[in-house]
Amino acid sequence: MAKGRVLVIDDEESITEALRTILQSEGYHVKTAGSANRALQEADREQYDLAIVDLVLPDLDGIELLKRLKEKHAGLEVVVVTAHGSIPAAVEATKQGAFYFVEKPFTPEEFTVIIARALERKTLLRLTHRGRAKVIGSSSPIKALFELIDMVVKSDANVLIVGESGTGKELVANAIHAEGARTRGPFIKINCAALPKDLMESELFGYAKGAFTGATGDKPGLFEEAHTGSLLLDEIAEMPAPLQAKLLRVLEERESRRLGSTKAVPVDFRLISSTNREVETALKDGLLREDLYYRISTVTLRVPPLRERRDDIPLLAHAFLDRFLEKYRKEPKGLAPEALRTLQAYAWPGNVRELENAIERAILVAQGKEIGIADLPEAVVRGSGESYRVSRGLPAGSLDEIERVAILQALEATGWNKQAAAQRLGLHRPTLYSKMRRHGIPVKPPRESS
Known about the structure:
Layout: E1 5-9, H1 13-25, E2 29-33, H2 36-45, E3 50-54, H3 62-72, E4 77-82, H4 87-95, E5 100-103, H5 108-135, H6 140-152, E6 159-162, H7 169-178, E7 187-191, H8 197-205, E8 206-207, E9 219-220, H9 222-225, E10 230-234, H10 241-253, E11 255-257, E12 264-266, E13 270-275, H11 279-284, H12 290-296, E14 299-302, H13 313-327, E15 334-335, H14 337-345, H15 351-365, E16 370-371, H16 378-384, H17 386-392, H18 399-413, H19 418-425, H20 429-439
Parallel strand pairs: 1-2, 1-3, 3-4, 4-5, 6-13, 6-14, 7-10, 10-13, 15-16
Antiparallel strand pairs: 8-9, 11-12
Helix pairs in contact: 2-3, 5-7, 13-15, 14-16, 17-18, 18-19, 19-20
C-alpha cells in the first residue's frame, strides 16, 4: 500500500519526473501535472494527500493555485517549491495554507523529510478531527477543556495532561501539536509505562558507538528527533527518578548528550507530558519529582472522566455508532431508548475507550434495526442498574432513581463491600455513604423476602 498520494505540479518535465522518481522510490503514489488547470482537473478526479506546487506556472500563479486547491480540498497538504524564493512569497504561501516553502536547489534527503512531515501532519489532523469526538461534547467540563487548549495551543509552554485511562489524553496532545506553532516539526511519542526502564535512557538520549555492548553505531535519541517539534512523554510518572533528574537538566539547558559521548547536542522541542495518576499522590509517593513537576506543568489540562460528563454520552454513542456502521458496512441502526438510558446510568470506569468498545461490540451482535439492552456488554448492563430495575420492577424514573439503582447494583455486585462498590462507581467511600443516606439505602443488605 502506498504511503500517500502525491500530485506534483511543475511546467518543467525534468523536474516533475525527478520528483516522481524520488517519491516513488520512497513508496508514494505519484501523479504529475504540467499546468495549474491540469492540476485542478486532476485534484477533482482523484483524492490526493499532498500537492507539490511550483510557484511559477504558465497559466496561473502558484499562490493562486494553492488558494484554489485549499478552497476545494481543505484536507490537502501543499508544499510550494520555487527557484525564485523570497520572504514575501513564503509568507503569502504560508498564509494561504502551505505546509512548507522550499527553495531550489534541494537534496532528495531534505525533500523527502519535508514530504514525510507534511503527510504526518495530515494524518495527525485527520486523527485529531476524528478523535475529537472522543473528547469533545456539549458538557461544561469539555467546553472548559477546549477553551483552555485554544488559549495555550499557539504558545510554546510545556503542557501536562492529567486524566484517567481512556479519557483521550493522547488526542488532546495530538491537537496541541497539530494546531500549534510547531506543527511543521516532528511529533515524537514515547510511553514511559510500556518501555523497559533499563532501555528508556538510551531511547531518550541515544548513544554513541561503543557506549555499551551491542552499541555498534551511533543512535540519536528522541530528544534529538523531536528537535523543532514536540515530544510527548506519556505516563511520565512511570519514569525512574534518576532519569527524571536528567530530563530536568535537558529542559533547563536545552541540550542533550548521547550515552558514551562527550558532545552535547542543542535540542529545541515543546514538551507535552501526561499521566493517569493523581499528581498530588504521585508527588507524595516520590513517583514524580517536585522540581520536574513545576517545569513540565506550565499549563495543566485535566481531561474529565466520562462519569463527570454524562450529558455527552448520547453524542459520543451516536458518533461511534455512525463510525462503526460505516466500518462494518452494516445497515443503519438506532439506539433504543432503554439502551441509551443504560449507557447513561453506567459509571464507565474505562471511560470513552470503554464506551467506544461497547458500541462496536453492540453493532457486531445486534440483529434488529435498533441496538437494545441485550446487545450491550453484560458488565455495562449489570453495572448500570438496568438489570436490577428489570428484575425488581423499578421504574426508569428520574436521574435520582437511576443513581439509586446504580448504587444498589454496585453493592449487590460487590457483596455490599462499600469500598469495592465506591471504586466500581468511581466515588470516594464517604461520598458513597452520603448518597446511600440520601436515597434511603441501608448500610447492610436487606434480607430477601421469601
